[in-house]
Every structure is written in C-alpha cells, then in structure tokens.
Specification:
This protein is an alpha/beta fold and 220 residues long. The protein is built from eight helices and seven strands. The chain has helices at 12-24, 27-40, 43-56, 72-80, 109-119, 134-141, 176-190, 212-219; strands spanning 85-90, 124-129, 147-151, 156-158, 165-167, 195-198, 203-206. The relative contact order is 0.07.
Length: 220
C-alpha cells in the first residue's frame, strides 16, 4: 500500500509529521486509490504472496544452517596434532544448561573437570564467550588462571593468565541505557515472572519464568 501514510511509531517527530499530512491532504482521491488496493488484493492474496516469498527462501544462500558436529574420531586426531589449539566455549547452553533463572546456570562438575584438563595443557588457549557480566564468570570460573573470558558479548575481555580486563566500551556513549531500562521496567511491571538484568554495557530482559504465551506477546 504505497499510498498509506507510513511512519516510525517510536519517532515522535515522524508520527507528528504523518498526522499533519493526514489532516491537510486531499483525501478523496487518496481514499479511492487505497480502497482499490484493498478490494483487489484481499487478505488471502496477501497471505499467498507472503507464503510464496517465504518458500522461495528455503535453501537460499542466506538461509541459516546448523553447524555440523565434528565426529569424535576426527576431533581426537585434530587434538593430538602438535601446535597451539584455540577453544571458544559459550556459557549458557554449552557449559551449562538453559534454565529459567540465569543465576542457576552453574557449571557442572563434569564441565569444571574438562576445563581443568584443557587449561592445564600449555598448548591450549581457552576462552569463555558469554553475555554474562564479569562478576558472574569470575565468581564461578575465576579460579582457572589460564582461562580467558569475553563477557557482555565482547564488551570486556580478559586474556588467559591475566587479571586485567580490557574495556571495549570505554569510548562509547552509554547514555542510552537509562532510557532503554525504563522501557524494560514498563514491561516488567506488566509481565509477572520477568526481570531486568542491568550490566555495564547492556541490558537483558529475562522472561523465561513468565507464562509462555504472555511473555511472547510482549517480546514481539
């Protein structure tokens, strides 16, 4: 509907300008054009076009593909090769299971044992990559001195055998956080079981403990 007034609902200036255009515009001819589009392209036509567009993307170049697993036998052979090895491990969902409360996502004894063995090999370079903050990972994995950490999705990085954190957000304008946090608080007050997690460079709204349908409504 090219003749419809379109605007960004989050841009107050854009909304005001669209409202003004709607009030001062010549309406009869525009209404006739929009009415023609609606009557000649009913809802089932729109649905058919959308389904066709979605189906055309199947097996396309931009279609996401699941990373294949490396066979265990091949992995063992690769590990036994001499030279340095670089490992990047995700935290939630890899070293720990996905749980409703983020504070309950703790490494299992088996995961800690595996990290102990991997970090004890001087040829291994190990990093934990996570959206978690520094305090959480240091509390539960900080006793591994040769374990590197990338937290808050790369905002802060600590190299193996180092206690110094590199802050990649120091030069960024973080004034947006309070405004965004206010939006999250608005939805948190209206969604039982949700909560906001404030970090140094990011904000996360957790809704896993909410009613699935209710949380999905507010998410989208």
């Amino acid at each position: 509907m090219a003749d419809a007034l379109q605007m960004n609902p989050w841009d107050l200036g854009d909304v005001a300008a669209a409202m003004n255009r709607g009030l001062v515009m010549e309406k009869a001819s525009r209404h006739a054009e929009l009415h023609s589009v609606v009557t000649t392209h009913p809802s089932h036509t729109w649905a058919a076009v959308l389904a066709k567009m979605l189906l055309s993307q199947i097996n396309g170049q931009n279609t996401a593909r699941q990373t294949p697993y490396i066979p265990g036998s091949s992995l063992g052979e690769l590990y036994d090769n001499p030279g340095k090895r670089l490992f990047w491990f995700d935290h939630d969902g890899t070293l720990t299971p996905i749980v409703k409360m983020p504070s309950m996502a703790l490494p299992s004894p088996d995961a800690l044992t595996a990290l102990t063995k991997l970090t004890s090999d001087p040829n291994n370079i190990i990093y934990i990559v996570s959206g978690r903050d520094q305090a959480f990972l240091e509390e539960h994995l900080g006793h591994f001195p040769r374990l590197g950490m990338s937290v808050e999705h790369g905002g802060f990085i600590r190299s193996p055998d180092s206690a110094v954190w590199m802050n990649f957000t120091a030069s960024l304008d973080m004034s947006w956080m309070e405004e965004v946090a206010e939006i999250f608080r608005y939805y948190t007050e209206r969604t039982t079981g949700s909560h906001v997690e404030m970090k140094k460079s990011s904000i996360t709204w957790h809704y896993r403990s909410t009613d699935p349908e209710w949380g999905r409504v507010f998410l989208f």
